[in-house]
TrEMBL record:
Protein family membership: Belongs to the TRAP transporter small permease family.
Membrane-topology annotation of the record: Multi-pass membrane protein
GO molecular function: transmembrane transporter activity
Compartment list: Cell inner membrane
Chain ranges of the Tripartite ATP-independent periplasmic transporters DctQ component domain: 21-151
Domain of life: Bacteria
Protein name: TRAP transporter small permease protein
Keywords from the named record: Cell inner membrane, Cell membrane, Membrane, Transmembrane, Transmembrane helix, Transport
Function in brief: Part of the tripartite ATP-independent periplasmic (TRAP) transport system.
Keyword Membrane in record: yes
Length: 159
């Protein structure tokens, strides 16, 4: 039986981030047109939300097996070596996402301890940075789910 995988929390988060970015940008354009000045907070929030959107969207793409990859070698291999290749792909991704999670968590903790403030609004910097390790850990979970589904034959190799 083929599954229809989903990453609902990340899908909602990425959708919310996109809507807020659009509203902030629209508000800034209208304000600039009417008053000649812009809203100071828009760039800082937009950049932060764009990072959230990117990581949450990547997590959804991982779960749905929607990331771009070259499947030439996978299609050419027999079943056992193909499974080994899929496991190796998971290992490489897990190492990268594990490092991002680890160092992102360390950076978040340091920013919290140092009580660093954002340059634009003076908000605690860790409020922005904490999303990096959280969402990279979510990506690792989604990649693991995808890999297990692929190895178990529950997910098509080609999206």
């Amino acid at each position: 039986m083929k599954v229809s995988p989903d990453a609902r929390p990340e899908r909602w988060l990425s959708s919310l981030a996109l809507v807020v970015i659009a509203l902030i940008s629209l508000g800034n354009v209208v304000t600039r047109y009417v008053t000649g000045g812009s809203l100071a907070f828009t760039e800082e929030f937009s950049v932060f939300l764009l990072v959230v959107l990117t990581f949450a969207g990547a997590s959804v793409a991982l779960r749905r097996n929607g990331h771009i990859r070259i499947g030439l070698l996978e299609r050419a291999l027999p079943a056992a070596p193909k499974k080994a290749l899929i496991a190796f792909q998971w290992l490489c991704g897990a190492i990268v996402l594990g490092l991002i999670t680890w160092f992102g968590a360390r950076l978040t903790w340091e920013e919290y301890q140092w009580e660093s403030l954002s340059p634009g609004l003076g908000l605690p910097q860790w409020w922005y940075i904490v999303w990096l390790p959280v969402l990279s850990a979510a990506m690792l979970v989604r990649q693991t789910q995808q890999t297990l589904d692929r190895l178990g034959g529950r997910l098509e190799d080609e999206p």
